[in-house]
Write a structure and sequence with these properties.
This protein is of the alpha/beta class. Helix content is 27%, strand content 27%. The protein is built from five helices and ten strands, in the order ββαβααββαβαββββ. It has an eight-stranded mixed beta sheet. The chain has a two-stranded antiparallel sheet with strand order 2-8. β9 and β10 form a beta hairpin. The longest helix has 12 residues. The chain is globular, with a radius of gyration of 16 Å.
Length: 188
């Protein structure tokens, strides 16, 4: 059975992944939610992201969790992120560390071949990369965390589409901080 490409993203209730100036301070990630993400992402076979997402992660996670004041969930995720194979889709990124491969463009045949390799599912993130994967019908599942806030403007997760993508709800979970996880599979 082929691995799935699973979109993992957090959004505001009005559908934005970030506010103006890339603000994500409105995300409600507490210890309970962070542990849930750690448990889910630890089962993945790799992370797929764009340059912006990768640079944000690479600026923080290599050294995160090294402070004695770090939460256990942060220490755990930092190790997970450093060790997990990562593919960054970028036409401009020159080099990347931390078990990262740079790919210049989304080639549907290469992605389908990647899905056929052994290992866990692949976690996709980033709105622009998601749009490219959706354009080529490469996203198999959606794992969206909806944060209880309206931010009014910013970068939406999904841009305009010209075709419908039917989905089947497979699970929901509500956290004490008001975040709701919505899990959908593609209806094929």
């Amino acid at each position: 059975m082929a691995r799935k490409i699973v979109l993992f993203m957090g959004v505001s209730l009005d559908g934005y992944i970030e506010g103006p100036d890339r603000d994500i301070g409105w995300h409600r990630v507490d210890e309970e939610l962070h542990q849930y993400f750690n448990d889910e992402l630890a089962t993945m076979g790799g992370f797929l992201g764009g340059r912006v997402t990768h640079e944000l992660m690479a600026a923080y996670w290599p050294d995160a969790g090294k402070s004695p004041d770090s939460a256990p969930q942060e220490v755990e995720f930092a190790a997970l992120w450093r060790d997990m194979p990562k593919i960054v889709y970028s036409t401009t990124l020159e080099s990347a560390d931390w078990n990262t491969t740079i790919v210049r463009q989304v080639d549907p045949d290469e992605v389908r071949a990647l899905k056929e390799q052994p290992g866990g599912d692949l976690a996709l993130s980033g709105a622009d990369l998601t749009a490219a994967f959706l354009e080529h019908d490469l996203v198999d599942a959606f794992h969206i965390s909806v944060h209880p806030v309206l931010i009014g403007e910013g970068k939406p997760l999904f841009g305009p589409r010209h075709s419908e993508i039917p989905l089947t709800l497979t699970a929901t979970r509500t956290f004490g901080n008001g975040v709701v996880i919505l899990r959908y599979d593609r209806t094929r």
